[in-house]
């Protein structure tokens, strides 16, 4: 999309070298320059809003990815806890059988129950941490998308304001003083005549 195709709140940015109302200001170079500058500034504001919006959205997506990765790591730790429990209980049962003891009664059963409890608590903690990380990622993404949309909107509003100013300038034209130059000097003396100008004798 070029700057000539952009519409801001229904107001086309148009071509800064041929701004709206150019037929009225083509003989007034100062007004034409002011209007062109306003249009270019409006386009710049629009572009900055778009760029900032994309950056904020990207930041939100990256943060969500980091939180998701962390959440998956917690899930992996939770699974490792269950695998460790399985190996521990299997080893306990094997030792009990080797000693001629019922692994599901007496001391072996007490140890087995304690292992289950400890592993269960660790598993729940890891899963809670995983869920919290996923939620934090969703929040980061939502915040980034909202901030990006706000930046885009701010850029559009700023551009629209500058376009309105350009339109007003094109409609009214620049204030004119007989003989005035861009620097404000009067090449032909004050309006009242040379008698009131100290530079003329």
Helices and strands, with pairings:
Elements: E1 7-8, E2 11-12, H1 22-25, H2 29-98, H3 106-172
Antiparallel strand pairs: 1-2
Q: N- to C-terminal separation?
A: 61 Å
Give the overall form.
Answer: rod-shaped
Low-confidence stretches: 1-6, 177-201
Strand order of the biggest β-sheet: 1-2
Classify the oligomer. Answer: single chain
Structural class by sheet pairing and helices? mainly alpha
Helix content: over 70%
Report the mean per-residue pLDDT as an integer: 79
Number of β-strand runs: 2
Main sheet attributes: strand count, strand direction, barrel closure: 2 strands, antiparallel
Return the string of H and E elements: EEHHH
What's the structural domain tally?
A: 1
Structural features, described:
With 201 residues, this protein is mainly alpha-helical. It has helices at 22-25, 29-98, 106-172; strands spanning 7-8, 11-12. It has a two-stranded antiparallel ribbon. A hairpin with a 2-residue loop joins strand 1 (7-8) and strand 2. The model is unreliable at 1-6 and 177-201 (pLDDT under 50).
List keywords for this structure.
201 residues, mainly alpha, two-stranded antiparallel sheet, 3 helices, 2 strands, rod-shaped, disordered N terminus, disordered C terminus
Entry summary:
With 201 residues, the chain is an all-alpha fold. The protein has three helices and two strands; from the N terminus they run ββααα.
């Amino acid at each position: 999309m070029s700057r000539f195709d952009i519409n801001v709140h229904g107001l086309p940015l148009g071509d800064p070298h041929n701004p709206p109302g150019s037929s009225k200001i083509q003989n007034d170079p100062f007004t034409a320059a002011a209007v062109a500058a306003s249009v270019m500034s409006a386009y710049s504001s629009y572009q900055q809003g778009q760029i900032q919006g994309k950056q904020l959205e990207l930041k939100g997506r990256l943060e969500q990815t980091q939180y998701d990765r962390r959440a998956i790591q917690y899930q992996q730790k939770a699974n490792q806890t269950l695998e460790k429990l399985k190996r521990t209980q299997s080893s306990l049962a094997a030792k009990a059988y080797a000693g001629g003891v019922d692994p599901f009664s007496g001391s072996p059963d007490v140890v087995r129950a304690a292992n289950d409890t400890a592993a269960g608590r660790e598993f729940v903690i890891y899963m809670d941490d995983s869920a919290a990380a996923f939620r934090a990622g969703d929040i980061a993404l939502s915040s980034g998308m909202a901030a990006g949309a706000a930046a885009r909107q701010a850029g559009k509003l700023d551009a629209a304001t500058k376009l309105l100013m350009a339109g007003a300038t094109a409609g009214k034209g620049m204030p004119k003083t007989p003989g005035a130059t861009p620097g404000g000097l009067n090449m032909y003396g004050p309006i009242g005549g040379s008698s009131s100008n100290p530079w003329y004798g």
